[in-house]
Amino acid sequence: MGTFKIEGGIKLKGEITPQGAKNEALQILCAVLLTPEKVTISNIPDIIDVNKLITLLGNLGVKIQKIGSNAYTFQADDVNLKYLESIDFKDEGRALRGSIMIVGPLLARFGKGYIPKPGGDKIGRRRLDTHFEGFINLGAKFRYNKEDYFYGVEAEKLKGAYMLLDEASVTGTANIVMAAVLAEGKTTIYNAACEPYLQQLCKMLNAMGAKITGIGSNLLEIEGVESLGGCEHRILPDMIEIGSWIGLAAMTQSEITIKDVSWENLGVIPNTFRKLGITLEKKGDDIYIPAHVDGYEIKTDIDGSILTIADAPWPGFTPDLLSIVLVVATQAKGEVLIHQKMFESRLFFVDKLIDMGAKIILCDPHRATIIGHNFKSQLKATTMSSPDIRAGISLLIAALSAKGTSTIQNIEQIDRGYEKIDERLRAIGANIVRV
């Protein structure tokens, strides 16, 4: 188990470039199974979860070639479907939440798709019903082995259908879209997710020959086609990492420029941080954050009541950044209520922040009230363990702002989502060592 040792309280300075979006990469990589032709993908983040999926695709028989830094070609012209019945597949599929999205492409192209119950972050229940109900609507037969926790769907030919999703699941929408592009006839998906990741997937599929309209809305219409071809695709910068670096700059009172952020795909993220009093300047496609030497003050609502920041499906505020907002608020001037609506276990890392001296009241599993220190009292260094990717990066930011030397264990959780994070932080002045 790896460990970070962090000397906190150091001002950082410089430029940092966000990696490619992890959540987009997991969708895009699964889509290569839809065609026997070569697909070229660039800006792929070099992180554990993505590399696990690339390995899984290779074991499925996809020909993979690295052609440059963070760039690969994929060609699924000789897929080994027998691998889906192997013990190795059951082990690899369980180890990665994103593996669920191979089911739609396999079902669409080969008439069958299987997956063991996938793992992922322990952030609460993450149901798969939306995925499989969508496949059933397209004409697939569903089966589930309770003893092995193994799911399967099969169909001779998928047929387009109208469906109203029970939740705007990002991975569920992606899976259904990838199945529907090769289905016979028209598919309409209402209450579809519309995150930039999903928009990117739809644009890539259209570049491969799919016919998808309504991209960016919650109503997608898909005219099925006989086959798809190859394409080239570049992954967006990771909006979660961008939000993380905004929080890092504020908490360490550092002057940082975040490069090439794709402003048009950030939604409400910049304004949400501005509500915490953080100054963000748009310079071309970069975000410039000046050193907040005098701190930052949380804004109240128009009527003067305490600010509430809650997560919601896109275009609302992403749940992946609520933990960052929570940490940033611990040194703000003022108070804020954080309401985590979408997952029931994502606030359970706050006890570690309380141990560091943060003023936080955990109201219930979904809500926490933070009273900011206004930098009049530094957080104290401590030893802690990373429970999941997003809580892990939040604790890392807290440690970088704290007084003394902190130790973070179980850093593999952070490595699952952030590429070479210790090297990149050292490049802007952080004192962080991987042990």
Highlighted features:
four-stranded mixed sheet, alpha+beta, 435 residues
The overall strand count is 23
- The proportion of strand residues reads 15-25%
Helix content: 25-40%
Spatially, the strands of the biggest sheet line up as: 21-22-1-23
What Rg, in angstroms, do the CA atoms define? 22 Å
N-C termini distance: 9 Å
Biggest sheet details: 4 strands, mixed
> Low-confidence spans: pLDDT under 50, at least 5 residues?
120-125
By secondary-structure content and strand pairing, the structural class works out as alpha+beta
**Mean pLDDT, as a whole number?**
94
Number of helices: 14
- Tell me, briefly, the overall form: globular
How would you characterize this protein structure?
- The chain has 435 residues and is an alpha+beta fold.
- 29% of the residues lie in helices and 24% in strands.
- It has helices at residues 22-31, 48-59, 87-94, 103-110, 129-137, 170-180, 196-207, 239-251, 269-275, 322-329, 350-355, 389-401, 412-415, 421-426; strands at residues 3-7, 13-16, 38-42, 63-68, 71-75, 112-116, 141-145, 150-154, 162-164, 186-190, 211-213, 219-223, 231-234, 255-258, 281-283, 286-289, 307-310, 335-339, 359-364, 367-371, 383-385, 405-409, 431-434.
- A 4-stranded mixed sheet has the order 21-22-1-23.
- Helix 1 (22-31) packs parallel to helix 2 (48-59), helix 4 runs parallel beside helix 6 (170-180) and helix 6 runs parallel beside helix 7.
